[in-house]
Write a structure and sequence with these properties.
Helix content: over 70%
Shape: globular
Largest sheet: none
Structural class: mainly alpha
Distance between the termini: 43 Å
CATH architecture: Up-down Bundle
CATH class: Mainly Alpha
């Protein structure tokens, strides 16, 4: 896993560190997405309380996690989808920077929603097939 991903994992401070050490790569990506979504929610809360310093810190952590996710994209295997995902992660980083500068909750919500959609799709990738009941 690239160094960026390790930095992103370190930003996911509320995670069980032993669970991270033994998680498979698919689970790590889910944890990173969860961490970014959680940091954005914390930034939203800080913004609503008027805590500018905490808002900036949480947004910064979310941007770092998203950068780690971007660093995990496999361009050799992913083709066009990998390029699109990279562009989307870059867009999210820029949108979070704008949200920070302008105290824009709508932009925080937008990025959180995008991450939620990607997370949902990613979670379905490794779902074991359930037998069909008669």
């Amino acid at each position: 896993m690239p160094n960026l991903a390790f930095k992103a994992v370190s930003q996911y401070q509320s995670a069980d560190h032993s669970a991270i050490a033994y998680a498979d790569p698919h689970e790590l990506i889910l944890r990173l997405m969860n961490g970014a979504i959680e940091r954005i929610a914390q930034a939203r809360g800080a913004l609503s309380r008027g805590d500018t310093a905490a808002k900036a810190e949480f947004i910064s952590k979310a941007v770092q996690i998203i950068g780690g996710l971007e660093g995990c994209v496999d361009h050799q295997q992913g083709g066009e989808l990998a390029g699109n995902l990279t562009a989307l992660y870059q867009y999210m980083g820029l949108t979070l920077a704008e949200a920070n500068l302008n105290d824009d909750i709508a932009k925080l919500n937008e990025v959180s929603g995008l991450l939620g959609e990607i997370r949902s799709a990613w979670a379905q990738i490794s779902q074991p097939e359930q037998p069909v009941s008669a």
